[in-house]
Records
---
Amino acid sequence: MQRDNYILVIDDDPDILDAIRLLLEDEGYAVKTSDKGEYAESLHDENGGLPDLIILDILLSGKDGRTICRKLKARADTRHIPIILLSAHPDAARSAAEVGADAYLAKPFHIDDLLAEVARQLAVPPAASSPEEGTV
Amino acid sequence: MSAPGTTLPLPPAEEPIGPAHDAELLAAGSGAELIALLQDGVYELDREFRYVRVNAAGAKLAQKAAQEMVGKRVQDLFPDAQSLPLHEAAQRVMHTRRAERIETFFPRFYRWYANTVYPTAGGVAIFARDITEQKALEQNLVFLAKASKVLASSLDYGKTLRNVAKLAVPHFADWCTVDLLTGPTRVELLAMAHVDPKKVKWGRALRRANPVNLNDLDGLPRVLRTGKPEFYPLITDDLLVAMAKNERDLDLARSVGFSSVMIVPLVVERRTIGAITFVAAESGRHYTKADLAMAEELASRVALAIANARLFQASQRAVALRDDFISIASHELKTPVTSLKVYAELLLRQAAQAGDARTGDQLRKMNRQIGKLGQLIEDLLDVSKIEAGKLELRHEALNLNALVAAIVDDIQATAENHAIAIEGAIQGRVVGDSDRLGQVVANLLTNAIKYSPQAKRVVVRLADTPAGASIQVEDFGIGIGAEHLDKIFDRFYRVSSAEGKTFPGLGIGLSICRDIVERHGGRLTVESVRGQGSIFTMTLPYHSPG
């Protein structure tokens, strides 16, 4: 499967998006950002390809990041992408695991903690899944 | 006939018994003269059920002249009498020669009687006492009790009021309606009851065609405007004519067959929120002042039930709103702190890479403040959750030794002047929430360091005790004066030093710690001597399986 080498960050707060992008680009990663949950849902393999990792905030305007996570994990073509859920909400940790998130980080976080988690998730080889086998 | 000299109980008065009547009775002596003056109706019958003697009260009750009745048989004067329980009782007494008591109700006059049928030498004698007022009171009280029970059965006052209206018919009223003011000019018909469902349909259609106009002079509109009841004990055709706005209204009113009406307001905190209307029509009942008093009592209970239900709904909404607030505040407050922290740490890294120690130092201090801000927000939100009863605790097997060691490691990393030592270990099994208990230990350690700036060490002791697993944090710092000791776990309590300086913080950390420990079934206590230091001891109960 093609690795397109970028991290997708989705958060409805533009300042946090900027800060995380700065942090990741500083670390040498390619980053795409969006403040809309729909962007994650409409991901597909053409047009620049799928991300290697998604960092997703739970509380998005009009959408729940957990639902998006569940959907992405249910689709054969996106199931393999590791997802780190972020949240300022006190009780989010518990529900993060329930929707198949690979990791959860509470806001506000230490940048080292986020970087460590990103490195950890990207080090895991992608789960076997190719667009040829099976269909969505 | 009763024997001379027997005292007959005085009847409840339809007309008041006055001194003149007493005097007559006293003068009458006994026997026939006495019976003639009684307010009880007395009927003497022979063996063929022919009236032998009827007293004045009895004749009045029968609505005939005594002379009309004497010599005639009961069944000739009153053809329906045969089927009446009273007549059947009289027949029984005639045969068995044993007295009987029986209550009768005359719908035409809407009156109740307690009748005693005595065997006499010539046949039977019936003494009929008017017990209408007592009976009405009794029935009213029964109705009130049933209605109260219905009102208390549910907070859905729409449902309970419809049931109360149904309860009222047909015994207390022929029609019962409940109206509520749903706006300054809007009246909503909440319930309408009548024994005959066809009539209810008709009544509702009537209402739809003639909606209540709050500007009308009398009736329901006036009650809703003034909060005062309206009472029409006797409705005559003249009254209907006087009150009707037009010919059509008059026809409608006449078709209902009004005989008596009571409209009582529903008042909550001096505001009229609606009214209950009781209409007597086909029954021919005429409401009395006692009935009005009962209707007002019912109305006040109904108003109370409505007020309670509304208060409850409002409090539910407030709780939901507050819980939403906690969610939203949590997110909103932490959002800017998140960005702040990322930028501060990025700058710190750049300063370190550039070898700029001074800038790095300042940034480190700034980052620490950001950390404190984040912690304060957490504490505040924890308190909200605890207050709201929404603090969820996990139940897992705990390795307290490992937990304490990890926390000590974390805190030791930033404690430059203190050496934190761990003594002892816990063998017993404890169940609980490791995150929250870790929060408590961390809090106690941070306090220990904060309040012993001159000391060099902090000691953590782990032990098993009869009361449970014990975690103790001892510092050798400024200590806590005796006057503060029982208050330091209170919400927002802050200790000030001898110079009047208060240590920074919201003062909620210890109260949260105590809440968490107590939620685990444990205790958090403190011993301290000012100037020497403090020992905080946390005890957690052991877990017994099964």
Note: The first strand of chain A starts at residue 7 and ends at 10.
---
Amino acid sequence: MKQSKIGSWIAFIIGTLYFIVPLIGTFEFSMRMKRGEYSFEAYRVVFSDPNFQQTFLYSTLMGLITIVIGVVLVVPTAYFIQLRLPRLRPVVEFITLLPLVMPAIVIVFGYLRLYNSSSWIPLTANARATDLLLAFSYVTLALPYMYRAVETGMRAIDVRTLTEAAEVLGAKLPTILFKVIFPNVRVAILSGAFLTFAIVIGEFTMASLLNRPAFGPYLQLIGANRAYEPSALAIIAFLITWACMGLINVFGQARQMKRST
Amino acid sequence: MAFLEINEVRKQFSANIVVKGFNLGIEGGEFLSLLGPSGCGKTTVLRMVAGFESPTSGTIRIDGKDVTNLRPNQRNVGMVFQAYALFPNMTVAENVAFGLKVAKRPASEIKSRVDEMLQMIKLPHLADRYPYQCSGGQQQRVALARALAQKPKVLLLDEPLSALDAKIRVSLREEIRALQKGLGITTIFVTHDQEEALSMSDRIVVMNEGRAEQVGTPFEIYNHPQTPFVANFVGTLSVLKGKVLDAASGRIQIGKSEIVASRKLFQANAGDTCSVALRPEAAVLENGHAAPTGHNRLAGVIDDVSFLGSVVRVRVKIDDNAISLDTFNNPSAVPPQPGAPVVVSFTPNDVLVLDGSR
Amino acid sequence: MTATVDMTPPLPAEPGPVPDRSSAPKNLAVGQKLWAWLGVAPFFVFALMFLLLPTVYLLVGAFQDADGHFTLQNLADLFTPTILSAYWISIKVSVASALVGAVIGFFLAYAVVLGGLPAWLRPTLMTFSGVASQFAGLPLAFSFLATLGRTGLVTVLLRDLFGFNLYGTGFNLLSFWGLTLTYLYFQIPLMVLILTPALDGLKKEWGEAAQVLGASQKQYWTMVAMPILFPSLLGATLLLFANSFGAIATAYALTGSSLNIVTILLYAQIRGDVLHNQNLGYALALGMILITGLSNGTYIWLRGRAERWMR
């Protein structure tokens, strides 16, 4: 198809402008804190704010916990479904699609009603338990992506043949899972992990409704009360997201290169 | 003037010359195959006839008209692709009708033509099916019907059978040839499978590295290959290495014996090494009766015997060389035994000289 | 608020039938199955506790009154002006951002896949789309405020360089169109991510076959390419709609309670029972689930149809 390329270039340039200009605008705004000159003052204020440090740490920790829980749930499931219980696949797929169908606010609303202090599993009774509930809600949010990433990775390495080869060599199930399967889907797990991290760091709705000191509610507080710091935070958030996605790509490339050797 | 003329066509992609100085005249109603290995330029030549690529230089004429600068949708050629390329959003009938719809033919004409084409490929019951509901062989037949619906001047087929199972390939091959003969449409068929080319074509063009190595009927290409490439590419050969004794009379030394080749060694001098080749059906095992005078005879030992059904393939070691020859299976005779000493004979005319002959 | 993005490639076609493993010794096969069930049990327990039960609880609660008796009153109460207008605004914003996002996303994806641009632009666009589709929520709101707010960079530049008073024209970032414009920042990339594989699936041979059969470019697009792409296009637009409908954080930071969309209403209700009726919150949630469920369900069905055609 020999198309005129001008239209394509116009579309691309307009698209680029729309996406780049807000970033430039945000960065420029964030530098305006000191009257009359450009400076990184807003960033300095943000980084030295103890609330920033605490909430960022909290969300990072939450992210890691979410990743661990997610991996523990997803990897054995994906493995056994592919290997021994293929008929359950449609059920599992439906489950992993549910969080995409239901808005996050509805999900956390359900948790609040079902697991509050007067229910039989009082997960909001104290701070630690609520943290656990928050982690579970993050796992729910990240589930579709984590499962899809791991399942694709397992498909690519043909778990059935690997398992049979290991069995013939005398390995039992735990050995197979930890020494054979896990290392080979490490890259898929990592890409799912980075995506999870990006989701958790910026999440607002669930953390706010569950009243936990996460990064999202902190952002909202700053946004409501300060002028320049929100832009600095936006740039920081953007860089973190970019880093996560970039790392997914890097590991994806590494896997492709390993394949070709 | 031929019906389809390709004159001095050259195609260059950046620094890569893919087709070099290609000349060909195809008669009306002829079935011509472009045969060659991957990358030899045969598909590029076909695509230039279709109009998807423009020649870097040279012209293409169809029925007297210069089409070199025309777009594919102005040339009135029909094309069948390797991957069928049926439109997935349309039924079989709608696919076949597509060209007629585009040309804004009246609905009644479209309907009757589509019915006619579906009858021709013997699939009228599939009219309302979608491509994904049809087998590969069926899809390719529909693609053929779609290409022929508008009565194009030339039919182009780009390795149409490569994606199909072996059995379907053979039956579809015959069907395509029968259809083509019945319609009398000029056809170019691209393939890398020599059996397809040999069995279907009126003429074959053997291509290599962008050039036409030889043009001829299947008989000519197989029995009188003009270059070593053609000899090697079409059919199987046994190659013997020897030394020229006398170019004028065609005497060559093979191992400890001497043979004569009828086809003269024009550029060879006495003492040159050369390679000669034999088709498997040309060599014969002498069974006690010596061959007539004038035949070449080489003594050797049977190395291996393969039973291939109707054909028994025997490999005979002759000093440092080996000859593979085919004999018909004979249930009432004792098959040759490995290790037995035998004499292989063949006529001087059977000898294909690969080096040093024109 | 996270955007629902399909980062990983679409599911490959179903693998072939599972070979019969019954040739393994009977007790070995049973033991293997047992371990398999144990291995997937945590997942199902989790799904039950944190996906299925909460949803069911909300759905059941929507049909109950304060004393737990069955009632349809909550559903009836949804049809009050405040709530209806909330749904209506949500739907309007979602339709607007979905349609505009779909059109722009289509042209961008087309430009990069089929438009003849240099090959290195495509991976750049893909990576950026992956990032941008996740860059939603509060940071996005802050960004647009910093750019198009009253003292934002673009507003100021337009005033100083072109003498153009953006806010004088009645434009306000904190409004329906301002929110839609902001939503586009993650809607367009989402469209690009979904549509690019679909455009890849447009086989070159279809275009060539159409050409050789006499079709012009326009005829090819109207008779072949667009019909083939239609399920993917429609499905992706529906996904964008549901994505926007369920979004809250961006709106919360940008328009607060000045633009009364359903998610904000539900948020306020959860926080402080502003509707003075617990179960009405469930009904709100039910309405949301129905709308996004229908939209996403249709998307998934359309995606299945499109994949089947492409076999």
Note: The CA atoms of residues 94 and 233 of chain A lie 37 Å apart.
